[in-house]
Amino acid sequence: MQDLAIDTRPASKRLNTKMNNFLNDVLKGLQSFPKYLDSKYFYDKKGDELFQKIMASDDYYLTDAEMEILTEQKTEIADAVLTGAETLDVIEFGAGDATKSIHLLREFYERKSIANYFPIDISKNIIDLLDKNIPNKIPGLNIHGLHGEYFEMLEEADRISEKKKLVLFLGANIGNFKFNAMPAFCRKLRSQLSMGDMVLIGFDLKKDPKKILAAYDDAEGITSQFNLNLLNRINKELAANFDLNNFEHYAMYDPDSGACKSYLVSMKEQQVHLSGTVISFKKDETIFMEISHKYSISQIDEIAVQCGFTPVAHFFDTKKYFVDVIWECDQM
Ligand code: AVI
Q1: What is the Cα–Cα distance from 203 to 323, expressed in whole angstroms?
Q2: Which of 52, 58, 121, 173 to mutate to test the pocket of ligand 1 (most atoms within 8 A of CB)?
Q3: Full pLDDT tens readout for the chain, 332 residues
Q4: Residue 41: is it exposed, middle or buried by C-beta count within 10 angstroms (0-12/13-18/19+)?
Q5: Cβ atoms 78, 113 nearer than 8 A
Q6: Residue 215 Cα: closest atom of ligand 1
Q7: How many beta carbons lie within 10 A of that of residue 56, not counting itself?
Q8: What are the E-state strand segments in the chain?
Q9: Angle at CA of residue 294, ends 293 and 300, nearest 5°
Q10: Taking a C-beta distance cutoff of 8 angstroms, is the pair 111, 187 a contact?
Q11: What is the pTM of this model?
Q12: CA of 113 to the centre of ligand 1 (A)
């Protein structure tokens, strides 16, 4: 779980801590068996660009499905959220470029129901872009971009404003938690909110396994580049010498558990030097890169209740590939 203390040290010191965390996490993962890397590190500038390409690709159906929900059903979504005459703060975890949430934000703004928009993202590039671009798209909207870890920044938003909150967690980002870690995340989210606050979460649903696998093993090879880019980032930022030609992307989907996993496979026995440490790979040894979990509606509703929420509404795309759910915070 994330540390809730706010770091008040100067930016240069914080940067050093960030680099140390990155190095420690990478060394820990690559010295474990089986080896793994944390997918939160995918998103450097190049990683952000590659993820944009994934979202625009034909095989990655998730973005279009959720976009259809948010454009076609924004009125119904706003009706489900705005139960009284109050204005609310919209806080978005992993805001990205906000191309999906902008439809909801505009709907709330036109109804004079939004006090502040707090996009939160781990990527500073993204927050800088949002602070610059959103005022052009919705002039007059109060935007406070927050760059950092979700729960720390949620506390920060809470310090700035005491309005009723709607937390958006779109794009099936919740699928990137391991199955057991996901309810812990939802409980933590509940513990930082107040009764009556709401969350709107996007889940990718279980469906034809071939459709799911194709989204993570796309014909254009963008997902492969996305995964390999993390090795490149480690080379640049942590003084390593991964040869990207010696690793291949492998994705698999298990329709029973709903786990879609991606790996990088070492094509040969090799040694990689990383900040003074030597990491050995056997031929065919894997690095686990990411999980993208798929859920059923009954699982989603059960988790809501277990974690202190009441499921309020489900919004599906026409193909029923994806769902955006609204949960309300129950009494704790
Ligand atoms: C960010 N996240 C929801 C994406 C997903 O679908 O799990 C990341 C991604 N990885 C490969 N393709 C997309």
Answers
A1: 5
A2: 173
A3: 333 344 455 555 555 777 899 999 999 999 999 999 999 999 898 998 999 999 999 999 999 999 999 999 999 999 999 988 689 999 999 998 899 999 999 999 999 999 999 999 987 888 999 999 999 999 999 999 999 999 999 999 999 999 999 999 999 999 999 888 999 999 999 999 999 999 999 999 999 999 999 999 999 999 999 999 999 999 999 999 999 999 999 999 999 999 999 999 999 999 999 999 999 999 999 999 999 999 999 999 999 999 999 999 999 999 999 999 999 999 87
A4: buried
A5: yes
A6: 12
A7: 11
A8: 35-36, 88-93, 114-121, 146-147, 164-169, 198-204, 247-254, 259-266, 270-274, 277-281, 286-293, 309-316, 322-329
A9: 105
A10: no
A11: 0.92
A12: 31
Q: Which residue's CA is the closest to the ligand 1 atom numbered 1?
A: 173
Q: Is 57 in the pocket of ligand 1 (CB under 6 A)?
A: no
